[in-house]
Structure formats: C-alpha cells, structure tokens
Amino acid sequence: MINIINMRIWNKQRRIRKETETKIISLLKELNYKEVLINNTVVYTSKRKYLKLTFIRGLKSYVFEYADSYDEAEKNLFGDGDLFPLTMNEAEMLFKMRDEIINL
User: Fold this and answer.
1) What's the pLDDT tens digit per position in 20-71?
2) Contact 83/10 with Cβ under 8 angstroms?
3) E strands along 1-104, which residues?
4) Does residue 54 sit in helix, strand or coil?
5) Distance from C-alpha of 51 to C-alpha of 35, rounded to nearest angstrom
6) Cα(19)–Cα(3) distance, rounded to whole angstroms?
7) What does pTM read for this prediction?
C-alpha cells in the first residue's frame, strides 16, 4: 500500500516537472533561443549565448547553466545561474527566469 502511495506521489511530481519544463522551454523560444544538441546534450542558444536547463533532484530546483561561446559549451564549461525551486510560485519562477535570461 505504501509503495502505491509513493508511486502516485512520484508520478504527480514528475507530471508537474514535465509541465513546468514545457513552460520554461516556451519561455526560451519566446526569447528567441533555439534548441541545439552539443555532445548529446540539449542546449539553447541565442546571440552566441548557450543555456542548459538542469533540474537538481536533491534541491528540487531548476538552474540555468550558461556558457558564453560554443567552445565553452562544447567543453561543458557552464557557469551556474540562480536556483529556482519547485516550491516557488510558477508565475514568479517564470518571471525571475525571464529576468535572469535577459540579463545574462
């Protein structure tokens, strides 16, 4: 019984993450970022900036990692941006993400 409850909770959290990621990707596209693969990793690029969206399970948070050139992205030399926890209001999270992306 406990395993079924845990599985339902896990599935709900996974569904929420997937919905949130879809909205974040829409935000990136709205800001003219294009999806590319670098070393089999999805990276978003615009105006020679490279962003990688990462979910940190232990912190239950998203973070944008950024590189200033293709060469840095290819060598996986990404710097970390701010943490955006899942507990944050979704509208606030997207607003703060937009601000971070614009001001990179």
Assistant:
1) 999 999 999 999 999 999 999 999 999 989 999 999 999 999 999 999 999 9
2) no
3) 34-38, 41-46, 49-56, 61-67, 79-85
4) strand
5) 9
6) 24
7) 0.84
